[in-house]
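Before the break, one more example. Copy the sequence into your notebook; we will annotate it together after we see the structure.
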Amino acid sequence: MTAISPQAPVVPGRLEQMSTRIAFFIAGFGIAAWAPLVPYAKARALLDEGTLGLLLLCLGAGSIIAMPAAGALASRYGIRRVATAGTVLICLALPLLATVSSIPLLMVALFLFGAGLGAVDSTINLQAVIVERASGKTMMSGFHGLFSLGGIVGAAGVSALLGLGLSPLAATLVAVVIVVLALLKAAPHLLPYGSESSGPAFAIPHGVVLFIGCLCFVVFLAEGAVLDWSAVFLSAERGLDEAYAGLGYAAFALTMTVGRLTGDAIVRRLGATRVIVIGGTLAAAGILLTTLLSGWETALLGYALVGAGCSNIVPVLYTAVGKQKVMPEHIAVPAITTLGYAGILAGPAMIGFIAHGSSLSMAFVLIALLLAGVAISGKILKV
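Here is what the structure looks like once it is written out:
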């Protein structure tokens, strides 16, 4: 494979903006398509909560390993090639996750799935930064809104197909076809180069960057908990049929999508500090509503509040990273991204361990306390 020089790249325009939005949609759709499959995989492999939590470490590990590697590869070979390769991995892993029952094969499938998601997420965020900078406009919330829209379509769509009686494999193959069609539309205008910034793929954050990274960790931890455990919680604790258990993540993704698509206006009106304080409070309240009150309808409302609360916290934190002077931006951003996504690695596993030793409800209450800490931290962080 021939390396592509990042020198003198073509300035991104409208078509590149379109491809960025589609790529974010693919990332959100791909990860959300897994949510309704979790209870089926758990039952098929005869897993308890603790074992499932350990297996989900493979998904997070794949993402964490792939992110810095994808950034380095994108600088050498271009965003288009690396994002396409990551999408292909997602398409290969999803049918495996819908069918395999042995623990070793599930580990491999989850690792490949996580690696594909990590590669796509890393490269499309890099493209988003380049495209937004070239446009001279604030576009990041809109890009991330397409990720959330993909989450709605992925979770609700696969849940609907399962509800109509399709097998997990058939429903997943429909999802793969949608991802492939979206990739064919986006790929021609994904950037054939990467970032022009030099520096290590990963650096240990310190100072205010470490503080921001810890807040990102908690928010991503909450998002990962909803992704990987909401369906299990709704089916096991609230008695909702497994075919519809993915609606929990769909409710979360719906309000997160609305919040992000309107995020720029919200931040301008409320200010970044209030967005963090109010958002963290709403998300914590949503988790408590879901876990402490009975009824699956109440749980769906709680997940919706979590999505609304979390929607604009991370974009605001990325803006704060751009303002700090402790670390260079091109090093600080990958550092907090990796630390943030470590929440997705640790969160689902932590939920599984706590649920195995105590209860799934107790695990979610702990998440609520951490989100309350984010709300308090909003007043400390100067943004």
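The CA atoms of residues 62 and 115 lie 4 Å apart. The domain at 14-380 is CATH 1.20.1250.20 (Growth Hormone; Chain: A;). Try to locate both features in your own notes.
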